[in-house]
Design a protein that fits this description.
The protein has strands at about 5, 10-15, 20, 30-35, 40-45, 50, 55-60. The protein has about 60 residues and is mainly β. The radius of gyration is 12 Å and the shape is globular.
C-alpha cells in the first residue's frame, strides 16, 4: 500500500490505499485509491495493469 499509480500517459492518479483479496485463495482481486471529494474513489484489478515496480503501478486502461 502507498504505491503510486499512474495512467498510460504517466498522469498520477494517487496511491494505493486498500487491497481487496479473495478470502479463499488470498489472491489480489482489486486495488483501491481513496480520493478527496469531489473526485471519486478509484478501483481496478491487477488485470488492468501494464507494469508493476516497487515504486509505481502503471495502468493499461484510462480512467476518466
Amino acid at each position: 500500500m502507498g504505491t503510486k499509480v499512474i495512467d498510460p500517459d504517466g498522469k498520477s492518479l494517487g496511491t494505493i490505499d486498500y487491497v481487496v483479496r479473495d478470502t479463499w485463495s488470498g489472491d489480489v482481486k482489486k486495488l483501491m485509491i481513496y480520493r478527496k471529494p469531489p473526485e471519486e474513489d478509484l478501483s481496478f484489478s491487477p488485470d488492468d495493469t501494464s507494469e508493476i515496480t516497487e515504486d509505481v503501478v502503471k495502468l493499461s486502461i484510462t480512467i476518466p
